């Protein structure tokens, strides 16, 4: 799905940034690729005010959005850095927009993402759901990836009851993934 507002805004943003950049004699520090929180701190220490002129996506908190474009201008308020932010998740997942795992940014994000292997998720489900002596097994669609709102489906046979569940990541903290589990809808 294409976000038409973003698709139309990008060329206008590029023109505005190109025009604004030529109006400032000394350039702001290059902060493209940094989070908004890091960029704001660097710009503030250099005497610039960060001004967000475009935001794409909305899966992360503004402080964690990544600066994708930068321009500079002099205004009555002083020196300003005009910023475009990408607020999608660092790595795309099922139903979660973000960087492709095949892109350089996606590969870096994937390497940093916490995950629980498919085998470990299956073992955990069997031990948590099977209480009787009968046959038990679990089969999941993949690893549980530490990206909030990402999910996997797992079919579990426990105590002669076969059920398909959806596990949805709710939080990642200190290398641990928290998730909700519920019947697949």
Automatic annotation (TrEMBL):
It comes from the Bacteria. Residues 1-27 form the signal peptide. Keywords: Signal. This is PASTA domain-containing protein.
